[in-house]
Amino acid sequence: MPHSYDPQNIFAKILRGEIPCDRVLETEHSLAFRDIAPQAPSHVLVIPKGAYVSYDHFAAEASDAEIVDFTRTIGRICAAEGLDPAAGGAGYRLVSNCGAHGLQEVPHLHVHVLGGRVLGRMLPEG
Ligand code: AMP
């Protein structure tokens, strides 16, 4: 089944400038902004500018340039937020939810960059 993208999702509206965001970094192919309901002292969302629903959609259909840009932007956010252990930070977690079982709320690919506190176990029991 092909991936179907809803251009009315809230991150598409942010990309079109129809609603504001707390922007952290913008590159040619990616945008990083603070989550509106942060779950950690650092909680930044990194999204590609292209119309991709999920990580698997992006991995299958994005250009090499988009993939490199997105990956490096995530790395730059980890460093800019002071989370990189190699630079004295205390670490971080990357999360990308997809679909019903992933409890994805916004159907535009995003990676959550979380840090600034001990984040607990990766998944709750059961
Ligand atoms: P997910 O469950 O992985 O789809 O997460 C969607 C995330 O988007 C949640 O953490 C929301 O708090 C966040 N979010 C929703 N609307 C906005 C917005 N307008 N600006 C920033 N973050 C948002």
- Tell me the span between the first and last alpha carbons: 29 Å
Task: Tell me which ligands are bound.
Answer: adenosine monophosphate
> What's the number of helices?
3
Question: How would you sum up the global shape?
Answer: globular
Explain what this protein looks like in three dimensions.
By secondary structure, this protein is of the alpha+beta class. It has one domain: HIT-like (HIT family, subunit A, 2-Layer Sandwich), CATH 3.30.428.10. The chain contains three helices and five strands. A five-stranded antiparallel sheet has the order 1-2-3-5-4, with helices on one face. The longest helix is centred in the middle third of the chain and has 17 residues, at 64-80. The structure holds adenosine monophosphate (AMP). Adenosine monophosphate is lined by residues 10, 21, 35-37, 45, 97, 103-106. Adenosine monophosphate binds at residues 10, 21, 35-37, 45, 97, 103-106.
Search tags:
single chain, 126 residues, alpha+beta, five-stranded antiparallel β-sheet, binds adenosine monophosphate
Secondary structure elements and their pairing?
Layout lengths: L9 H6 L7 E4 L3 E5 L7 E7 L6 H7 L2 H17 L11 E4 L15 E5 L11
Antiparallel strand pairs: 1-2, 2-3, 3-5, 4-5
The chain binds adenosine monophosphate.
